Amino acid sequence: MQIYWTKIDKIIEETAEVKTYLLECPEGFTWEEGSFIHLALEGFNAGEKPNKSLVRHMSICTLPKENSIGITTRIREQCSEYKAILRNLEVGSKVAVFKTRCNVPLKRENKNIYLLSSGVGLATFRPLVLDYLEHPENVPHIHSLNIDSSKDFLFPDIFKTAADKNFTSEFVDNRKDYYEKVEELAMDKEGLFYIVGSDEFLMQNIELLREHGIQPQQILLDKNEKQLPNFLPVDLSV
């Protein structure tokens, strides 16, 4: 396993609780839209065994052509040791990245794509939308639906409806409106449904989609192969 040590190049205060960290891109490091990395803080490998409390699985919210590894995360006042350390890092601080993988690539199968997310989970979809807007081939339409009660919706410059580009973006601030909208979207029996959020959020969305006839193979989660059976039938989760 190759560990890339890099530096924080810029910190963006997205909202009162959400920050985006832009990391310098190490030479030879690359990824595709929908990828995640393991982001480790200094000291994680100082002992005989790695300190897993200093490592987190994070979605990359940028594309390689942006020349930086973007990580967007929510840091509340009461948070974990990892988030507390991350909150106090500054531009120039060192971090490590490794184990890049993509669970939710943009599928170009001539099917409509629905991006369902909660809060900061929207960051996972940012690179998919950017890639689609520049290269819409074999994707008829993308519809993003995000629920965030804070009303501080992320990336408004990107997540805005563009009818001429067959892209729809919706934000709601309550669960009732959100799930009513999901039911409407589920009327597309051929669509592909990407879901990002807490495990509870995933299960609620999957249950609703399945009730409306959406098949497991139409549902994409940011989970690895070992985790998928916890959410979708084993024989149909790939």
UniProtKB/TrEMBL annotation:
Coiled coil: none annotated. InterPro entries: FNR_nucleotide-bd, Riboflavin_synthase-like_b-brl. Gene3D superfamilies: Nucleotide-binding domain of ferredoxin-NADP reductase (FNR) module, Translation factors. This is Dihydropteridine reductase. It comes from Oceanobacillus luteolus. The lineage of its organism: Bacteria, Bacillati, Bacillota, Bacilli, Bacillales.
